[in-house]
Amino acid sequence: MRGCRQWVDGRLFQWLSTQHAQGAKDGIKAALGLDDSQLRVITPDVGGGFGAKIGVYPEESLLGMMSKKLGRPLRWRETRSESMLGMGHGRAQIQYVTIGGTREGKVLAYQMHVLQDCGAWVDMGTILAPFMTRPMSSAVYAFPKVECRTTSIVTNTTPTTAYRGAGRPEATAAAERAMDMFALEIGKDPADVRRMNLIPKFLDKHTTVIGQTYDVGDYETALDKVLAAADYKSLRAEQAKRRASGDVKQLGIGVSVYVEITGGVPPMGETAKIEVQENGRAIVYTGTSPHGQGHATSWSMIASEQTGIPMDMIDLVWGDTDLVPVGGGTMGSRSLQQGGAAVNLASIELVDQAKKLAARLLEANEADIELDRDRGVFHVSGTPAIAKSWADLATAAKGDGGLSQESRFNAEGASFPFGAHVAVVEVDTETGKVRHLRHVALDDAGRVLNPLLLEGQIHGGVAQGTAQALLEEVRYDSDGNPITSNLADYAFISAAELPSFEVVHMETPTYLNPLGAKGIGESGTIGSTPAVQSAVVDAVSHLGVKHIDMPTTSERVWSAIMAAKS
Fold first, then answer.
1. Angle between helices 295-307 and 341-361 (to 10 degrees)
2. What b/e sequence results for 426-464 when a residue is b if at least 16 CB atoms lie within 10 Å of its CB, and e otherwise?
3. Where do you find CATH 3.30.365.10 in the chain?
4. Who contacts 58 (Cβ-Cβ below 8 Å, separation ≥6)?
5. Most buried among 112, 220, 276, 480, by the most CB within 10 A?
6. What is the three-state SS of 452-518?
7. Which of 2-6, 79-83, 117-121, 369-373 has the lowest mean pLDDT?
8. Pairwise CA distance, residues 356 & 362, whole Å
9. How confident is the model over 32-88, as pLDDT tens digits?
10. Under CATH, to which class is 269-410 assigned?
11. Element housing 176 (H / E)
């Protein structure tokens, strides 16, 4: 089910599975010719989004009109096959890459031409390559010369939309594949070649040759830490041993270093409101929407840290355009660094408001009022026994507009998380079957608010990145008919195909927001895909294989081995 509609007293109430309730409202208003007061969009539990649910689909606009004509509520439900054909698809690039440098391993020039399949009508896919892939084409490397050209092509396929990473995984995949092929050509270790070409550590702005400005970066430390955690030398020694023995099961080791952009999709800021009720509970209203990211926990942590109100006394409201009329939604890993920063700002301003009120009630100067966050009370400095609680203040403020603050945090710019991954696979050279044995991930998302939520995001990202590298592919026959239209035809990853991931922690805070946080929702996907693909190719490179397209299915791996032998 993707939505239901009902008209009440001349207003359209629309329940949607969307990542951006406010944006969906704007789209539906425009399609139906409604004004702002005639439409309310409510976002229930969304489930997965990953980019495909950012925009408004035609069916979501049509049902409102149909509901009005029929004079009754309507619900739209689709089958799995309908969803796989109608919901936006992801990636869909063909990349032509040229790389050149010295025999010692220094890259002197890098060139990429991207063909982007947009699908059958103009959607996000049209701008993915020029807007997201091209600016990140320099990746983490200090290439002295870079050229990137993109061509967006309309085809008769399902439209391409954003998918976890949206253009940045594609840029990273191209650069990392090129670095592997360059290292293989000159006979150097791929990790050493990467280290030689990395942008040196910077904690202030760095502008790449392609013209993108990163905030902070320490790529060499990330690479060194992940290699140490994986015991890279021992892995190479085991690989050499298997190759020397002629073992059918060959070991492949893939390395990737990446940088991505988060919070770069307008609006470059977010709203938040926090209000305290007479019973002492607080309600946080946010313009972002959670669908598995744990916003209720994180936003409560932020508000509690500033106010002293216990986390279990804080409720979160999102995804209802009557209650939260302005908001940027959840996409592009923007939530914590913009939505969380807005909650932080609103909480600080709420404390300032409460101090003024407490000073009046306690007959003291505002400068003498202290907030005891451990107890969640305000008192005059030096006399903690006489205090006013949040409930006391909210009750006192009832006739004066209440105790609440609404704030907007405006971001100075996008942040650029980075990291490094090591993937280890085993390839059966007789059948082409790949087993993902081990994955070590370092994803630097700046200052970490909640380590458990961070690891959850990384685990999910690595799983999706691995799926792309090994299994997932939307296919059409020569006439353009889809042949992967249900889960019997479309291979997707499960726990059986994945190892237990190893997460290496590193924090390089950004200066772009007071939390020091960068995005983490997409990072795992961006780092894992090229690492896994690299590992598969590496496992059979001694047989003469230089490249295997994604997904590296058993058939493709076996075919590459046979072609190299012949």
1. 30
2. bbbbeebebebebbbbbbbbbbbbeeebbbbbbbbbbbb
3. 3-78, 93-262+414-565, 269-410
4. none
5. 276
6. HHHHHHHHHHHHHHHHHHHCCCCCECCCCCECCCCCCCCCCCCHHHCCCCEEECCCCCCCCCCCCEC
7. 2-6
8. 10
9. 999 999 999 999 878 889 999 999 999 999 999 999 999 999 999 999 999 999 999
10. alpha beta
11. helix 168-186
Architecture of the structural domain at 93-262+414-565: 2-Layer Sandwich (3.30)
Per-residue pLDDT reduced to its tens digit, 193-229: 999 999 999 999 999 999 999 999 999 999 999 999 9
pLDDT range class, residue 121, cuts 50, 70, 90: confident
Q: Given CA atoms 306, 310, 313, 317 in this order, what sign does their dihedral have?
A: positive
- According to the model, what pLDDT value does residue 1 have? 52
Distance (Å, whole) CA 404 – CA 349 = 9
Length of the chain: 566
**Residues 6 or more apart in contact with residue 11 via CB below 8 angstroms:** 37, 38, 39, 40
